Structures are given as C-alpha cells and as structure tokens.
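Our working data are protein records whose layout never changes between entries. Instead of coordinates, the fold is spelled out as a row of discrete tokens. Here is such a record, shown just as it appears in the course material:
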Amino acid sequence: MTAQPHPPLRRPADPVPVIALLLVVAFVVVLVSSIAVGAVPLSLSDVLHALAARLGDAPLTRDEALNAAVVWDLRLARSITAILVGASLATCGAAIQGLFGNPLADPGIVGVSSGASLGAIVVVVLQISTFGIWTLPVGAFLAGVGTTFLIYALARPGRGGTDSSRLLLVGIAVNAIGGAFAGYLTYLATAEQLQSLMFWSMGSLSSARWLTVGITVIPTVVGITLLMVWARPLDLLALGERQARHLGVDVRALRRKLIFVTALLVAAAVSFNGTIGFVGLVVPHLFRLMIGPGHRRLIPFSALGGGLLVMLADIAGRTLDPPNEVPIGVIMGSLGGPFFLWMIWKGRRFGLRGA
C-alpha cells in the first residue's frame, strides 16, 4: 500500500500587517478624540471644520472662530506634544532595553528620566539662561547624557553578569541621588519656582504650545530616525557584546551613539513636560510580545504605540476630574506600576524575546 504524501505545511500568517492596520486606525481615532475632548466639547464635524477653517479664506462665525482657536492654538499642539513625548519615551525604552540586553530597562526605572528632569530643575531654580529658550532642553539633555553614561558604566552587560536585579539596584540608587538633589533644590526654591517643581514631579502637557512643539519635534524625529538606521546593529547587540563584535559591530561606538540618542529623546520628552514614567517599559514590551524582538519593526511600532498611550493618558487626565486636570504622570504611574508588578509576578527571567 502506497503511503500518502503529507500535505505541505503552511506557514502561519504574519500578524504584523493586521496589527499595524489596527494600530494606525486606533491612532487616528484617539488623535481626533484628543482634539475633541476638553472643557469645550466638540463634535467630529466641529473638529474637521475647525481644522479646515485655518486653511481656507472663508469668513467664520463667532462660534466657528472660537472652535478654530481652541483646536489649532490649544488642543492640536497638545495632541502633537503627546505624540512626540510618547514616541520619544517608547523608542528610547526599546533602545535602552537593547543596549542593556534587559526588557526591564526603562528611562524612568533606571534613572535616565530623573537625571534629565534634574538638569531642567537646575535650570529653573538657578535661573540659568545661557542659551535663551534652548537652555531648558540643553540642561535636560546634558544631565540625561551624564546619567545614561553613569548607569551603563555601573550596570552594563559583561560586568559581573548583569541581570535584572543589578540594573534595578543601579536605577534605585540613581533615582535616590537625583531625588536628593531635587529635594535640596526644592528647599532653595521660591514660592513661584515651587509650582514649576511640582509640575516636574508629576508631569503634564498643560504647557504645550506650538513653540515647544517646534523645539521638541526636531530632536524627536532625528533620534527616532537614527534608531531606525541602527536597528540591525541593535539586533546583533542583543546577542551579546562579544557576538556582536565578531559579526562586525563596533560595539563601543554603537554604545556611545545609543547613549547620546537616548538621552536626546528623553530630554525632548521631559524638558517641557516633566517626568512621565513607564511609557518606555510598557509599550516596547507589549509590541515585543506581539511582533517579535526585531528592532526594524519594534522601533516604529513603539513610536506609534507610545504616542497612542500618552494621548489616551492625557484624555483620561482631562476627563477624570473636570475642570481640573489629573497630571499625566499620575495616570501613567497607575497604569505602569501594576504592569511592572505583573512582569515581576510572572516569576521568570525576562529575555529580549519577551515573557
């Protein structure tokens, strides 16, 4: 009796196109919702009409002019800021996790965000104005670079077999040192400066304006573009420094470039908006589980997912206690904290392939 040939095995369908489509649709829906939601609620037709009003020369009624001003001058700038902040922190988280070989790494957890925020706080309290309006982001950037170099020097792979606990301990220490300096500056601050320091400690998008968008969009786009260019070396670095070096990667140069760019992205996120935690932990980890660890896909997906998450958090902050706003850092802490505990509770050592 002749054996029947087995039917050819079918490769499972690639889920990435479907995930990408759903992500883009959700992104557009949430973007429109973030523009419509606020003290003055707007319908979809109001939003679309207001967006088109500034592009045309047709005369506007008083209500239409008010809606156009609300949409263009306030909410659209705020929504774009949320996208830039989320994209910066999420892609920075993906890069830091690749740099340390540890998906528990996050700009907030390991201390990078606190270092960058401390640099901005120093500028505010000491009233430094060396670079004019650029002084604040420059101060955040320099502090972020120094903090990232310090963290990597203390917890980098290859030094005593770096694991999750070592990285977390270094992050706790760096956050404690940054908190001590921030506390001293709070002690020295005036009453007016204390309000700014409160803003930094909780994070908020309330200061978003087109001027701040123009300042933050350049480092954000440049930083994410560079991470996309370095996607393949990041994948090789995930194999370990020695293996990456054998495959032709200049590990030392790549490490320095990653530190520079991640600090640039964190500075862009926190320089005008304060500390917003857990975006860089939650978003890359979820997408790594869904689409795999390859950075060529992970970085753009993280950018979109980060912008989507921060917009959702901003909408929640504006609607939970109207007319007041719940700081976005509080919203992200309430989401990210349980997520981080869930990762620990799973009880396994996390690798770059996810849980």
About this structure: The two ends are 47 Å apart (CA to CA). The chain is about 70% helix and 0% strand. The CA atoms of residues 126 and 339 lie 37 Å apart. The chain has a mean pLDDT of 82.
